[in-house]
């Protein structure tokens, strides 16, 4: 994938991105609100980037020639377990030094426009209810709160948590 915005570029990760990825993926202030396991060494960072490449799921957010975050696009499933080809879910993380500059808002807008252009009918995002920065970003992008559910036990990193789900439709 390659999406070009006014300030950010969204592209596939490469192994050479490992140092930049490690710089923010090892920061608990970034990882905990995003529900990510902290990455503590370059070898783990490279393995994670390889996994992203194989799954075609997570993409680098580049600003001023440097990877500053990632945005993922994930499949959703219907209640019967079959893939839902009409919806996607997004998730994201951004290096703390770039918070509050509108860069993630630009990245989310680029990805959402790309998905809607491909015929996706709804985009979902799950956030922890205490992640007010992410909730505000989603609401500014037009996402609407739908419901809150407990995070599955296998995904809770240290203690039971809830996730709030927000949805964006093509015409708001």
Provide an overview of this structure.
The protein is an alpha+beta fold and 172 residues long. It has one domain (2-168): 3-Layer(aba) Sandwich (Aminopeptidase), CATH 3.40.630.30. It is 31% helix and 34% strand. The protein contains 5 helices and 8 strands. A hairpin with a 2-residue loop joins β3 and β4. Pfam families: Acetyltransf_3. Keywords: Acyltransferase, Transferase. It comes from Lacticaseibacillus baoqingensis.
Structure summary:
This protein is an alpha+beta fold and 172 residues long. Helices cover 31% and strands 34% of the residues. 27% of the residues are buried.
Secondary structure category: alpha+beta
Query: What's the number of structural domains?
Result: 1
Order of helices and strands: EEHHHEEEHEHEE
Overall outline:
globular
Beta strand count? 8
Low-confidence segments? none
Number of helices: 5
Give the biggest sheet: 8 strands, mixed
At the fold tier of CATH, the topology name is Aminopeptidase
Per CATH, the architecture is: 3-Layer(aba) Sandwich
Strand content: 25-35%
Tell me, rounded to a whole number, the average pLDDT.
93
- Oligomeric status: single chain
């Amino acid at each position: 994938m390659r999406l070009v915005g006014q300030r950010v570029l969204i592209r596939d990760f490469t192994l050479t991105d490992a140092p930049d990825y490690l710089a923010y993926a090892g920061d608990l202030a970034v990882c905990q609100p995003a529900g990510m396991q902290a990455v503590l060494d370059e070898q783990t960072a490279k393995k994670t980037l390889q996994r992203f490449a194989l799954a075609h799921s997570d993409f680098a957010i580049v600003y001023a020639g440097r990877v500053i975050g990632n945005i993922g696009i994930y499949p959703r499933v219907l209640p019967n377990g079959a893939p839902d080809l009409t919806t996607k879910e997004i998730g994201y993380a951004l290096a703390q030094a770039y918070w509050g500059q509108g860069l993630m808002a630009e990245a989310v807008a680029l990805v959402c426009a790309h998905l809607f252009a491909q015929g996706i009918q709804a985009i979902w995002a799950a956030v922890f209810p205490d992640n007010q920065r992410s909730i505000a970003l989603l609401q500014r992008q037009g996402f609407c709160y739908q419901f809150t559910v407990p995070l599955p036990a296998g995904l809770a990193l240290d203690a039971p948590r809830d996730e709030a789900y927000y949805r964006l439709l093509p015409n708001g």
